[in-house]
Amino acid sequence: MAAEDVAKPLVVLLGAAGYLGSAVVAELARRPVRLRRVARPGRLRAMPVGRAGPAGVRGSAPPQSPPWEADLSRPGAVARAVAGADVIVHLVAHIGDASVWRAAEHDPATARVNVGLAHDLVAALRARRGGGPPPVVLFAGSASQVGRAGLIDGSEPDEPVTVYARQKLAAERTLLAASAEGVLRGVSLRLPTVYGAGPGPLGNGVVTAMARRAFAGEPLPVWGEGSVERDLLHVTDAARAFAVCTDHVGTLAGRHWVVGTGRPVRVADLFAAVARSVAARTGGPCVPVVSVEPPTTATAADARGTVIDASAFRTATGWRPRQSLPEALDELVAVLARRG
């Protein structure tokens, strides 16, 4: 590796092969950094280093070490993964057969990943304290940590109502306490529902799940009247938010920031838009959107609509969402049609 490349900051992405992680990798590929992509064994595929760069990003790709595969829940794994890092992007969450927030309700292993890895990370960085500025840690939090409905801007007291939200809050507090101590410079981005087609896997989110149902000709079920509103953030907009944090660490470090569009959509309207997009792609009729009773697995958070006021983050960084919902739905449907 050339000397000028060694001088570039080392960015370690924990959870680099996941839905959001793949998008963050692609975004950081535009920047003069070295990337270390860390994921569970078997999750990372080799990415070409050349003119196209990872995930087809045009321009000169940053120098990358070989994919780092590790079970981060094992003792010492986190410390080895982040050795020498200038910036650490912590995107790891325990994902079960269903969506991650529901997995947390019944799987005790989630606490080891969703909370325990934050403790491991702090311990690793505390052990390496020395000269120079502390490393930056960017954490993927959740808007559900607030635990309330309506408009949120990040100033609200936290009263999480699900196990997953409580675990996310515990991990965030661990990292921000270490930030106040000077062990690291921590920034937490609290995200709403992330959706859309990115450079990696499509994930198991509700929008993708409904599009798959529509392709199969199945009705799209909404709970009750589907009147709950959601603030949906495209995965590439979320990835840009993490990338832009590296430019504004001095302003952002030491607290959490809510990130979203501020443009909520009713769940029933969202599902109807998914059905129309799929019908336009297939040439068939729109599948119906039908009202059903909430299942027994529903949580209190499912009945609470949230809208994000990201003006504080926007003022601090200049970040704005770029993707419009109609265009993003059509793009997602097109990708699903190609992948089958």
UniProtKB/TrEMBL annotation:
Q: Where is the NAD-dependent epimerase/dehydratase domain?
A: 11-260
- Any one annotated GO CC term: cytoplasm
Classification via Pfam families: Epimerase
Supply the InterPro entries for this chain. Epimerase_deHydtase, NAD(P)-bd_dom_sf, NAD(P)-dependent_oxidoreduct
CDD domains xrefs: SDR_e
Region (Disordered) location: 47-72
Query: What name does the UniProt record give this protein?
Result: NAD-dependent epimerase/dehydratase
